[in-house]
Amino acid sequence: METLGWDVYAIGAGAALFAGVSKGGFGSGAAFAGAAILALWVAPGLALGIMLPLLLLTDAVLIRPYWRQWDWRCARVLLAGGVPGVALGALLYGVADPDLFRLLIGAVCLIFVALRLWPRLPRPERAPRWLGAGMGVLAGFTSFISHAGGPAVAVYLLAANLRKTEYQATTVLVFALLNVVKALPYGVQGLFSAQSLWLSLTLTPFALIGAGLGVMAHRRIPERWFFGITYVLLTVTGLRLIQVAVS
Fold this sequence. Notes:
The protein is globular, with a radius of gyration of 17 Å. Helix 3 packs across helix 9. Helix content is 77%, strand content 0%. By secondary structure, the chain is mainly α. The protein has one domain. It starts with 5 loop residues before the first helix and ends with a helix.
């Protein structure tokens, strides 16, 4: 087992803290950055294996503060596409080009934000089911190969015009279930190891602290500010995904 330096633990702590804050308070849109940052210091497969137990743990902790505040209709539509998307990701892992999907999701994020902020375009009260199913498949697939499902889910939930806590609780529910679905194929693919699990254990306090900070921030930030921050995070995430894809 390769010995990891203190720099990896430091970077991992920051990644776990950031992922916890994003998942705990701002809808998981930027939580993928944790795995992306860690993958700059360790092998991408190891980064995925390290982050999934941390994501599962934060999901379990976050279910309680957001219990039954989700929009089940939106969650059901996303999961109907998300579970097959995870299966597709497991099937094509190691074959699919993750940069192609990063580029696609990044473009979708930026186009969506531009359309939502265009003042003359009408905003339907409910997002169409086909959008939710499509974003669910994309979220499940990219969540499996890079933990980057948050932006696709954000596109659908922002279009659904939910209230602040409905939006947040729905993302918590959707990713809690999708991450559980991912666990078995991750094991089959060999993405868990003694090394990855040990590092996950050492980073657990940072993920939990981040989740707690995210919940506190969510409760204190006004709804208008919350969605403003969410759109900013979605824009930054989209730009970052495109940058990583083309570089």
